[in-house]
Amino acid sequence: MSDADLDALADSARNRGLKLVRSRIRTPGKGDYGKVGLTDGAGKAVFGMDGKTLTAAPDEVEAYLRNLGASDWGASLPPEKPQKPAPPPPKPKIRTAKAGDSAALVPLMRLLNHDVDEAGTRKRLATLTREGDVPLVATLGDRIVGLCGVQVSTMIQRPKPVGRIIILVVDEDVRGQSLGRLLIEAAEAHFRKAGCGIIEVTSRDEYVKAHAFYRHMGYERTSMRFAKEL
């Protein structure tokens, strides 16, 4: 290392409150020729010194100062604030629909191409509540993300009432989280309590994925459904 390089190394040491000590021997191969060391402001050996003998090569001192600078820089940083753990995602819940849910139910029903609006939905929900066929909704926190319409009917040809799932829909961005299964299970519990002997599900021909879901839940296709608008 040249004298200029050693001068630069001395400046680097000085910036860290240290002093670069250079060998006084000028004869190559003798003593601590070419060696350097570091002392603190009081002259106490810090690095590269064994008593009065210098033991470190200039590049070793350079690496020592570089590492020392990195540790000083890290120590000068403000301590990191502890990160608060992210709140756990809300757990899905199933409950009966309320009058104030009408606005949230409209976009769910429109996913199945039903032509509905908030006013009409609120009116029909009030009627269903009086008749005891209150729809079930799935929620995540304060958000309504699923709807299951239920209906209990007494039929002349059946000894027990028939439970009907007349609509089942889950919002697109939360599908695959078992919300449909939770709604079906809640509907089955409702029908069981009402004394139903069988549950029927209506589903349009084009909803092939829904048909596979119902079969997975234990439902079988037993008949064809015909409809005529009046």
Written overview of the protein:
The protein is 34% helix and 21% strand. It has 230 residues and is an alpha+beta fold. The protein has two domains: 3-76, no CATH class; 92-216, Gcn5-related N-acetyltransferase (GNAT) (Aminopeptidase, 3-Layer(aba) Sandwich). It has a five-stranded mixed beta sheet, sandwiched between helices. The N and C termini lie far apart (100 Å). The mean pLDDT is 89.
Salient structural properties:
single chain; 230 residues; alpha+beta; Aminopeptidase; 5-stranded mixed beta sheet; 3-stranded antiparallel beta sheet
What is the secondary structure topology, with strand pairs?
Blueprint: H1 3-15, E1 19-22, E2 36-39, E3 45-47, E4 49-50, E5 53-54, H2 58-76, E6 92-96, H3 102-110, H4 118-131, E7 136-140, E8 143-153, E9 162-170, H5 179-193, E10 198-201, H6 208-216
Parallel strand pairs: 9-10
Antiparallel strand pairs: 1-2, 2-3, 4-5, 6-7, 7-8, 8-9
Helix pairs in contact: 1-2, 3-4
CATH superfamily of the largest domain: Gcn5-related N-acetyltransferase (GNAT)
**What is the CATH-assigned architecture of the largest domain?**
3-Layer(aba) Sandwich
Q: Taking all residues together, what is the mean pLDDT?
A: 89
Main β-sheet: number of strands, strand sense, barrel status? 5 strands, mixed
In angstroms, what separates the terminal alpha carbons?
Answer: 100 Å
Number of domains: 2
- The largest beta-sheet arranges its strands as 6-7-8-9-10
Q: Beta-strand level of the residues, as a percent range? A: 15-25%
CATH class of the largest domain, please? Alpha Beta
Fill in the CATH topology of the largest domain: Aminopeptidase
